[in-house]
Amino acid sequence: MVENPENENFCPDLIEILNGVPHGIALVDQDLRIIMMNRFLEALTGYSGEEVRGIYCDHVLRTGFGRNVQVFRQALDSGVACSIEGDILGLNRKKIPTRFTATPVVEPGGKGQALVLVLEDIADCQKTGGKKEVGTAKGLLGHSPKMQEIFELLPVLAQTDSSVLITGETGTGKDILAEAVHLASRRSKYPFIKVNCGALPESLLESELFGHVRGAFTGAHADKHGMFQLAQGGTIYLTEIGDL
Q1: Which domains occur in the chain, in start order?
Q2: Comparing C-alpha atoms, which of 146, 153, 229, 141 is closest to residue 184?
Q3: Cα-flanking dihedrals φ and ψ of residue 46, to 5°?
Q4: Which of 4-13, 144-153, 165-174 has the lowest mean pLDDT?
């Protein structure tokens, strides 16, 4: 029998290990309902594991992979892992090409009692035909003296915990540079959370950034982690911060 995370016997060390994995991970029961999910998947979906516990996984991941449910059920019945590709709707309803690997948790008898779903973002692989892009920094290419200065400065910035201000005209690659700093840092195994401050209504700004507890205001039916909490251990990237 698979323990519920609320049960005191559920290994807290396991949760910490899963939180350190740089991919989305969900543990679902035989009915494909969420038992728990790691911090990376919380950041990807915008939901906390607590508020989605017991909810059918497709309603949380918003994949539209109903046609593949049979594949997951076969994995449960056979005890054999499977891998499929599809899309999920991430935070802000952005479609993310994803590879799902479903590994059954097998108990005596050979039948799966639960599934471990690992979600891997494969957008970069699709863009490059499965080949990794070669460059001085992920997604960054440049030969000008100014770009070379950036390439030299990037690893220095990545080793600090100081806030970094990135300025530049629209389309110059500020988002890519921010992610490159994150990937070069010791925080790379934790979430990289991008927040468009200009798109947040003033009335929701505090709640979205810092979260809220159940009953804090009308419509707050459950505790919600803020973006800063979801980025714990990783990097939070605030775009259009001048609009605050």
Answers
A1: 12-127 (3.30.450.20), 145-243 (3.40.50.300)
A2: 153
A3: 85, 5
A4: 4-13
Q: What is residue 43's predicted lDDT score, i.e. its pLDDT? A: 77
Question: pTM above 0.70?
Answer: no
* Alpha helices, DSSP H, located in 184-230: 202-210, 227-230
Cα first-last separation, the chain: 49
At 223, which amino acid appears?
A: D
pLDDT in tens, 13-58: 677 778 777 788 999 998 889 999 888 888 777 788 888 999 988 7
120 φ, ψ (degrees, to nearest 5): -115, 125
> What b/e sequence results for 97-113 when a residue is b if at least 16 CB atoms lie within 10 Å of its CB, and e otherwise?
bbebbbbbeeeeeeebb
**Nearest of 183, 175, 191, 190 to residue 136 by alpha carbon:** 183
